[in-house]
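[09:14] KT: can someone run the structure on this one? pasting the chain below
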Amino acid sequence: MAFCKFSTEYLAKSYTIIDNLFFTRYLSVTPPKHSMIYLYGLYVCEQNDNMDLNRFAETLGYSTDEIIESFEYWEEQGIARIVCREPFQVQYLPIRNIGSSNRKYDKDKYESFNREVLKLVAPRDITPNEYEEYYTLMEGYSLPDGRKISPEALLMVVKFCVQNKGASIGYRYIITVARNWATEGYITPEQIEQKINEYSTSGKAVSAIMKALGSTKKTSIDEHQFYQKWLELGFNDDCILYVAKALKKSGKATFDKLDKKLQKYYELHLLSAKEIKEYDENLDKIYSLAREINKTLGLYYEDVSNQIDTYLTPWLNLGYTDTVLLNIAQDNYLQGKRSLSALNDTITDLSNRGIVTEASYAQYKGIQNDMKEKIAKILETLGIVRNVTSLDVEFYTKWTTFWGLSNELIDYAVTLAKDRGSNLGYVNTILADWHTQKIYTVEQAKLASDNYKVTKTKNSTTKINSRKYTKQENDAIFDKFNEVEI
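[09:31] RB: done, structure tokens below
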């Protein structure tokens, strides 16, 4: 047993160092299973754990044969070495020292491929590293069923890329296209030909889209891939062209911008030119409405997108029209409520009351005006000279709407309050008392008032019977007082 060793807790919190070259050179072209086994093996090396092949395989959920096959793959890549078969032992090699000459590829196997690919990219030369990447793709990348891209299929991909991008095209672009197509299941010459025919068929449509965007450059694989994606999302040519032309007018006409635009419409479930046109026209109206409402409230925002998301869209979803929203905004402005937040509070309150349409809001305003006129008369009766406030409206609404008191009863309470020179708060006190006693008519209120007066009079005139004492009794009291010890 070693004299010193790390504790289990220390090892659990330590780190496994991975060379960045593993990610840049191997990860994108390596089957996930092999990458997982390599990384876990690296972790085991860092932990200095005496793990055998069986426990290693059991931990990852693979068979021992699959583990051996994977390390044979990494031995071919030159970054691992199988030092013993029984018991099975692997030694990890440093990635930085690995060059293309150390990889164990059969050069004779690819002699024909090398000649053909060199012809396709002429007049430029092919570096050893480029050849190596082609070999790695053909031998290292495979579909879940084990099939790999053939040299003939890869040559067809190279030819197609060169025809679209020119001989100076970088090999990494070719590798990316080949790997993407392989991921989609195109790995044989027949399948690659089918994929290329799809691009040829879509060439006219892609060219039309380029023209609609105002571009005169030659179409490339990238544009074709975008086009195939849009078709798979459910857009047709007419719809794509409509969006492209609209995008050109905005001065943001690129395939990337078009892709983002179509992606947004897809998320909104808008897949036809008619639906998109209606949406865009409505969106323009919403922006105009947002600016008009801000103007009505005396506000200005250069970008109203946030206001539309926060306020306008929810208001419109509640059923409010442009006219009603502008009317409410105007009334809020006159009442000194000059913010979008205050306007939102008003609209929320109106919505809760069921006041949404133009007719219902007009009726509501009529009722409000009548109420203010009645409140103004009450203030005049009380000898109060000022404008009607929101607190006055709250009082009156409570009396009539929530307590159900009649105007006659309110007027009687005002008359009683006037005699005391009081304000609206005293009127509220009288009415609250009557509401508690369930008094709803003037007659009931007068009766209650008369009873109160009678009770008060009786209490104020009650006589207290007094006793008269004789001189002898008074003297006796003081005599007893003198006997008290202090």
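[09:33] KT: thanks! DSSP finds 23 helices and two strands in the chain.
[09:34] RB: yep, looked fine to me
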